[in-house]
Amino acid sequence: MREAGAALAVESRRFSEYGWMRGTSGNLSVVVNRDPLLLAVTASGVEKSELTEHDVVLIDETGRAADPADPRPPSAEAGLHSHIAARTGAGAVFHVHALDAVVAGHRWPEGVEFRDMEMLKGLGHRAHGTTIRIPVIPNHQDMRVEGECFDAEYLPATDLVPEVPAVIIANHGIHAWGADVAAARRHLEIAEWLLRFAVAIR
Ligand SMILES: CSC[C@@H](O)[C@@H](O)C(=O)COP(=O)(O)O
Ligand SMILES: [Zn+2]
């Protein structure tokens, strides 16, 4: 847990410096055990620019706290982290309140489409010839409902088409995920760049 906390503290500082985790906004998780699924997730209500290695809580596959000796509440949105990790096989899930992601979700509530962009390679897709869509799902306070909304939009990778490892939550923020912390960060940074571009040229 200490190692997971240290890794998430680095990411939290980085995203805070980008302005994507203002105040207590956003939450980050990393899978610490696959079967049964256990994740280290940021504790709820922590100032994200000041997150330390101690500010993570162990959760199970339902998003509930899994260490009875730890009284701190996990992120209020922990359930969506465990859901995404279970559904996608991701090793890390990052959620931030990046402004352009929220603006893009507001402008294109059916999802934000991209094609013929070099940066698509950073999401595992070809730069040319295919259209990819970052879905937008409604915002819910109940993470079980949010998980159902995720499932309704999520398209797993096939032999021919890689997945799109990001989703916008309407009027809220964006989640991105990846095989590990580095991949989740890369996907988040690339998705945010694409969304910023879409908003800027409109
Ligand atoms: C301004 S924080 C808004 C929160 O409700 C939530 O969306 C969030 O991202 C952080 O919640 P947390 O419970 O600290 O993980
Ligand atoms: Zn949030």
TrEMBL record:
Its EC number is 4.2.1.109. Its cofactor is Zn(2+). It catalyses: 5-(methylsulfanyl)-D-ribulose 1-phosphate = 5-methylsulfanyl-2,3-dioxopentyl phosphate + H2O. Keywords: Amino-acid biosynthesis, Lyase, Metal-binding, Methionine biosynthesis, Zinc. GO terms for molecular function: methylthioribulose 1-phosphate dehydratase activity; zinc ion binding. Pathway: Amino-acid biosynthesis; L-methionine biosynthesis via salvage pathway; L-methionine from S-methyl-5-thio-alpha-D-ribose 1-phosphate: step 2/6. Gene3D superfamilies: Class II aldolase/adducin N-terminal domain (3.40.225.10). GO terms for biological process: L-methionine salvage from methylthioadenosine. GO terms for cellular component: cytoplasm. It comes from the Bacteria. Binds 1 zinc ion per subunit. Zn(2+) binds at residues 95, 97. SMART domains: Aldolase_II (SM01007). Residues 6-199 form the Class II aldolase/adducin N-terminal domain. PANTHER family: METHYLTHIORIBULOSE-1-PHOSPHATE DEHYDRATASE. Catalyzes the dehydration of methylthioribulose-1-phosphate (MTRu-1-P) into 2,3-diketo-5-methylthiopentyl-1-phosphate (DK-MTP-1-P). NCBIfam families: salvage_mtnB. Belongs to the aldolase class II family. MtnB subfamily. This is Methylthioribulose-1-phosphate dehydratase. It comes from Leucobacter chromiisoli. The gene is mtnB.
